[in-house]
TrEMBL record:
Residues 7-284 form the Prephenate/arogenate dehydrogenase domain. InterPro entries: 6-PGluconate_DH-like_C_sf (IPR008927), ACT-like_dom_sf (IPR045865), ACT_dom (IPR002912), NAD(P)-bd_dom_sf (IPR036291), PDH_C (IPR046825), PDH_N (IPR046826), Preph/Arog_dehydrog (IPR050812), Prephen_DH (IPR003099). Transmembrane segments: none annotated. It is an enzyme of class 1 (oxidoreductase). Gene3D superfamilies: 6-phosphogluconate dehydrogenase C-terminal like domain, NAD(P)-binding Rossmann-like Domain. PANTHER family: PREPHENATE DEHYDROGENASE (PTHR21363), PREPHENATE DEHYDROGENASE [NADP(+)] (PTHR21363:SF0). It comes from Naasia aerilata. Keywords: Amino-acid biosynthesis, Aromatic amino acid biosynthesis, NAD, Oxidoreductase, Tyrosine biosynthesis. Residues 292-359 form the ACT domain. It catalyses: prephenate + NAD(+) = 3-(4-hydroxyphenyl)pyruvate + CO2 + NADH. Its EC number is 1.3.1.12. This is Prephenate dehydrogenase. Pathway: Amino-acid biosynthesis; L-tyrosine biosynthesis; (4-hydroxyphenyl)pyruvate from prephenate (NAD(+) route): step 1/1.
Length: 359
């Protein structure tokens, strides 16, 4: 073990993110101290190996605050006062509002450097924590005007020890970015999923992977998201207004689809979506577009493993994979993404080996 981060590191808040930070640092041999307002949560995180209870004389040089969003400013201020030699960061998903609230409390923000790991799981708590939660995930650092280069290096070392990729943005840039890539998508997913509440059972019964993709994040905690959206409302509202304007235009075009230009307006909405999707980084951060092949497999143990093994034997590198089931049938639908130049060869090889190709 060759950790860049010097211990002990104090983690305040032992939920999913805090406990995962502790597990990852301990795996690197770093001494981790844990604190939480809930004795039960704290004991559970200790039992899972995320760290130890502080002992007299322990004085961390680095503190990671991993508490709910509405508790961040007060918690950071308290930690700064209790540990006057420590650099303090937090892992909240909004950065500008907590910084302003911290300053309003009169805290010493010269030792505060906010950060945000773009990682998580559907379930929370130490029981769901993982040492590899941050592996290869972006972790945004948001230095402000009182941040020093040495402090940035300390936090970058922490991020690298956790297996994540450090990214630097200002607090304002960060909040504008997550509004587009996280906060508004959460709201749109929730709005779409809400349409299912009164949808006929027949409609829900034939739902496929497309609907599941759109609504997956709608299962997130309302209590947590009310806090996040309230803290980032200034960045979220303009994006929502733009989406609302686009949606109103689309409704008008469909309502009057036989008017001149209406079909073009619909086509341009769809084409703009294509252009946006093409900007999303794919494997290894590349903007490459892949070709897909849909394979039908029997819904029984070992079939997916056998398919993946044979794709490897053919010598084709799998770029992505999506699995769903056919409603009312004992069939699995596997969509594999590969480089366009090998797609036809893979289809030919799998067909010769007895696999059923859809389409």
């Amino acid at each position: 073990m060759n950790a860049r981060t010097a211990g002990p590191v104090l983690v305040v808040g032992t939920g999913l993110l805090g406990a995962s930070v502790g597990l990852a640092l301990r795996a690197e041999g770093v001494d981790v101290l844990l604190a939480d307002v809930s004795p039960t949560a704290l004991d559970l995180a200790v039992d899972y190996g995320a760290g130890r209870l502080p002992a007299p004389g322990d004085e961390p040089a680095l503190v990671v605050v991993a508490v709910p969003p509405d508790q961040i400013p007060e918690t950071v201020a308290r930690v700064l006062a209790h540990h006057p030699g420590a650099l303090v960061t937090d892992v909240g998903s909004v950065k500008q509002q907590p910084l302003e609230a911290l300053r309003a409390l009169g805290a010493d923000d010269s030792r505060y450097l906010g950060s945000h790991p773009l990682a998580g799981r559907e379930r929370g708590g130490a029981i769901s924590a993982r040492a590899d939660l941050f592996l290869a995930r972006p972790w945004v650092l948001t230095p402000h005007e009182r941040t020093t280069p040495a402090q940035v290096r300390v936090l970058e070392d922490l991020v690298l020890d956790l297996g994540a990729t450090p990214v630097r943005l200002s607090p304002e840039e960060h909040d504008a970015s997550v509004a587009v890539i996280s906060h508004v998508p959460q709201l749109i997913a929730s709005l779409m999923a809400a349409r299912l509440v009164d949808a006929p059972s027949a409609a829900v019964g034939i739902a496929g992977q497309g609907l599941r993709d759109v609504t997956r994040i709608a299962a997130s905690s309302p209590e947590l998201w009310v806090q996040i959206l309230g803290a980032n409302a200034d960045a979220v509202v303009p994006v929502l207004e733009a989406v609302g304007s686009d949606l109103a235009g689309l409704v008008e075009a469909l309502r009057g689809q036989h008017r001149p230009g209406a079909r073009r307006a619909v086509a341009e909405v769809l084409a703009a979506g294509n252009a946006g999707v093409s900007r999303l980084p794919g494997k290894h951060g590349q903007d490459a577009r892949f070709a897909s092949l849909v394979v039908l497999i029997d819904d029984r143990p070992g079939q997916l493993a056998a398919l993946l093994t044979e794709i490897g034997e053919v010598g084709v590198n799998l770029e992505d994979l999506r699995l769903e089931h056919s409603p009312g049938a004992q069939i699995g639908i596997v969509e594999v993404a590969v480089l366009p130049e090998v797609r036809d060869r893979l289809e030919r090889e799998l067909t010769e080996r007895g696999w059923r190709i859809a389409g």
